[in-house]
Amino acid sequence: MDSGLSEAFMNQNDASYSNGRRRNQRRNDRKNVRKNEHRNERAKKAKEKRNSAKENYSVKRSFSKRMSPLQKEIRLMLQRELVETENAIREFRSDVRVCEICGKVISPEDIESAVSNRETGNPAHFDCVLKQICDSEKPGPNERVTYIGQGKFAVLHFENPHDLRHFSIRRTIEWEDRDNRLEWRNEMAGLFSQIK
Considering the entire predicted model, what is its pTM? Predict the structure, then answer.
């Protein structure tokens, strides 16, 4: 290759290389300017938003200072209702009931499912009553004692013990008297109705 030709070729490459670098530099400068403008805009909007939130807060505070008599009465009524609810919850939780079958305390969470003791009418754990019935009824093979509602239990017979959808009722056991509303249930119902 001719040396003069190669020098011209190299000078041309150097020029295009430097032109490309300048072009890239200008492009990067424009990008940086746009980024800075965008960042400044976002900062300005955030500052305006904070200022408007402060103004709204001060307006709300000044409004709340000037309550009408109706608003004051509503607030007092809500506060009284809240205190009554808290007292009802405290009373409900402090009312300790003991299961007469196992002798353990019936927790406030378990009192919902408690069943009355047949002899005394006091609350007892559902599981304790179920166990007591199972012990007295002694269900045979493919039989199970279960609660069927309204204070009644039943001994169910399953033809196929793996298929619990098909069964027949062998005997029913009326554990609680439906007509006799128990005192502890009335008391619990009253406390539950106070807790909203």
Answer: 0.48
Inter-CA distances, 47 with 50, 53, 83, Å? 5, 10, 42
Q: What's the token pair of residue 98?
A: 């003991």
Rounded Cα–Cα distance for residues 60 and 64 (Å): 6
Count H helices, E strands: the chain?
Answer: 4, 7
Closest of 152, 160, 109 to residue 129, by C-alpha: 152
What does the alpha-carbon distance between residue 144 and residue 134 come to, in Å, rounded to a whole number?
Answer: 8
Question: Taking residues 114-142, what's their average pLDDT?
Answer: 84
Given a contact cutoff of 8 angstroms between Cβ atoms, the answer to whether 158 and 166 are in contact is yes
The upper half-sphere exposure of residue 87, i.e. CA atoms within 13 Å in the direction of its Cβ, equals 7
Q: Tens digit of pLDDT for each residue in 93-123?
A: 666 778 888 888 887 777 777 887 777 778 8
Question: What does the angle CA 10 – CA 15 – CA 20 come to, to the nearest 5 degrees?
Answer: 125
